[in-house]
Amino acid sequence: MIIVNFPNFIQRIIKNSEEIFYQVQHGCEKCGYGGNLHKHATYKRNIICKEITVHITIQRVICPDCKKTHALIPADLIPYFQHTIKTI
Q: Is the pTM for the entire model greater than 0.90?
């Protein structure tokens, strides 16, 4: 799991209600690979924000060197929780 800062994340999910958040990610935390990680897969996640629940698509990336996959989690979310940091 890689925590990524997506600008205006909360405002974007409230406005669009579903969006894929992807940012080019450099470097693998497991093996130390320094190049770009490649898009690998996606999965759906529920987000409880203020008084609404929205569904977003989380992007997964893979390291071409060690083949480890990482999820790109927006910084406003708590890993393994549905609530945002601001809601808690």
A: no
